[in-house]
Amino acid sequence: MHVGDYWEYVVPDPDQAVRHSSRIVGETLLVNGLGYYKFESKTIDPPLPEVYVSYRRIDDSLNVMRYIEGGSCPTMEYLEYKLSGFDRSVWSVCWNDNYPLYTLRTLYLTDSTDDQYLGVIHRKSFGSATIDSSSGDTIYFPIGAPIIVLSEHLGISEIQIESQVPSFLVGAIINGVVYGTPTSVGPFDHLEDLDLASSISLHPNPVNPWSTLSLTLRHASPLDVRVFNLIGQEVGSIASGMFSPGTHTLPLNTDNLPSGYYFLRITIAETNIFKKFLVIR
């Protein structure tokens, strides 16, 4: 963890995609006498005014400890992520007794590898469990409990909650190094206040396998159009160069893409606009 680290996520809902972000804004000493990094999280598109604040630290055993007031935690913190834990390790934690979804007793993780920004890297999936009060059985992944996927070097890369569309990491800045395509400089999929293009559309969407990007430029402008998957990897390019004013149609071929959600990053001059699309087979 470093002050200034930043993570940006997308929830690729077919009706309205949502972007949210988290940033480490500083370090602070809290009332339990321990030092923590201060995280601020918010929804950036559509922009919402609410900012959610949380506090975390990493101890010498690579345990991520999260500060919590009240509940059954005598030191006012609990073990949120055991970064050095082994596959299927389970441990007890304390929790806030008033947490509205479930009573958390243990956490569960699996260690796997996946192709991400850095090639094949380790991913740990942290889930939850509860102890059934009548049978004493351990119930893994109770209803409403999130599954949090952490990727090596990147932090949280996926957030899954039952019956909800997952959140996927699309960009991050870790200790000054940029991964993927963080776009917090402005909203995506909107043309308000943009003096470069009067219209941008992608049709058909969903795509199988061809679609057409149509855009009308107000001025002669450099244009670059690239395709990214949900973890920020570039998987295609459909245009790059200087384009004249007027309407342009650019074909998009998805023959080489598996089914799923993707984004077009449309760069006009130095402004990025994002269009989500769904590939189906």
Describe this structure in words.
This protein is mainly beta and 281 residues long. The protein folds into two domains: 6-180; 197-279, Immunoglobulin-like (Sandwich), CATH 2.60.40. Helices cover 0% and strands 57% of the residues. It contains no helices and 21 strands. The chain has strands at 6-11, 18-29, 35-45, 52-58, 63-67, 77-82, 90-92, 106-116, 119-131, 138-140, 147-151, 155-160, 167-174, 177-180, 197-203, 210-217, 221-229, 234-243, 246-253, 260-268, 271-279. The strands form three sheets. Strands 1, 2, 3, 4, 5, 6, 7, 8, 9, 10, 11, 12, 13 and 14 form a 14-stranded antiparallel sheet that branches. The protein has a four-stranded antiparallel sheet with strand order 18-17-20-21, with no helix packed on it. A hairpin with a 4-residue loop joins strand 17 and strand 18. The chain starts with 5 loop residues before the first strand and ends with a strand. The model is unreliable at 98-105, 115-120 and 185-193 (pLDDT under 50).
Task: Describe the protein's topology.
Layout: E1 6-11, E2 18-29, E3 35-45, E4 52-58, E5 63-67, E6 77-82, E7 90-92, E8 106-116, E9 119-131, E10 138-140, E11 147-151, E12 155-160, E13 167-174, E14 177-180, E15 197-203, E16 210-217, E17 221-229, E18 234-243, E19 246-253, E20 260-268, E21 271-279
Antiparallel strand pairs: 1-2, 1-13, 2-3, 3-4, 4-5, 5-6, 7-8, 8-9, 9-10, 9-11, 11-12, 12-13, 13-14, 15-16, 16-19, 17-18, 17-20, 20-21
